[in-house]
Write a structure and sequence with these properties.
With 126 residues, this protein is α+β, with helices and mostly antiparallel strands. It is 29% helix and 36% strand. Strands 1-3-2 form a 3-stranded antiparallel β-sheet.
């Protein structure tokens, strides 16, 4: 009598990982996401490993999760995976206040981001 299972939104040759509330602004996170879009997963992991941006380690962890999902849940070939989509969105914004001169206040916003990573298996080249 339960609810019917939701249909799979991705194709059979795709796997996804999603991270919520990453503590960085979407603009900064999108720079890292842009650097790996369309790359083979092995090259993308190397790119993230040597990236100088702080958030690259979290993105690397998310990519590893997507690869593990592809391998374990969808039985895809890890050697043929590439980053099909890397989309970044806004999440909540923490608001803090800092005392300023003459009794005024300065508002400090600390934004959070969400990231969705889809890996896809390449078709075999004959």
């Amino acid at each position: 009598m339960g609810k019917k299972a939701a249909e799979r939104q991705l194709n059979d040759n795709e796997a996804m990982a999603f991270a919520k509330h990453i503590r960085v602004s979407p603009r900064k996170l999108n720079l890292v996401a842009e650097s790996i879009r369309g790359m083979d997963c092995s090259k993308a992991l190397t790119q993230l490993m040597f990236s100088r941006r702080r958030i690259a380690q979290d993105v690397k962890k998310l990519l590893e999760s997507a690869i593990a999902n592809a391998e374990n849940n969808h039985q895809l070939d890890v050697d043929r995976l590439y980053v099909a989509e890397a989309s970044v969105g806004k999440a909540l914004v923490m608001k803090r206040f800092r005392a300023r001169a003459r009794g005024r206040v300065g508002r400090i916003e600390k934004p959070f981001s969400n990231m969705r990573l889809v890996v896809r298996e390449r078709e075999e080249t004959v």
